[in-house]
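Marked as duplicate of an earlier ticket. Keeping the data here for the record.
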Amino acid sequence: MLVPGRFRGSTGQSLRREFQRICDEFLLSGVDVMVFLTDADAANWREIQSNERAKLPQNRLHCLILGVSDRNVECWLCADADWLGRKLGVDSNLFRCEDPKAHFEQAMALNRDDRKEREIAELVRSAPLSNWLANRSFADFYEQVRDLSQQRGCFVENLRDGGSSGPLAGPSGPDLG
């Protein structure tokens, strides 16, 4: 079962208390695995991951995945610049930069009112994720998903050993949510 989360960060609460509250709510909903995603912005993504992991409820770490994109999530979305350029019909070189966010938003015609979540979700579903593994922060996220899926008896495609590029969860096991 996939239970969507909520945006966090602007509540004014301490992050440690917010994480605990969110984890408690999810567990009451019957969630087996919780995935938290955040951006590193201009900081080192490993430092952000370490700092945020320290704020997570220690008694819930066994069922948590903490993905931290380097700089912003657009770095993951643009990890395969050639594929994305072809898919969006734009010059792939636009996405070959340290921070491709503005180029991605322009190519997707994103604006404040229309974030095009369905279109972006479809891009992710059809993306050659094995190519995204060249991005170290995405590779770390993928390894967390894969490790926890194996502990839970779920199928997550092995993209490292010549697996095809497709969804992270397949028909032979439940989606991690």
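See parent ticket for discussion. The longest helix spans residues 136-152.
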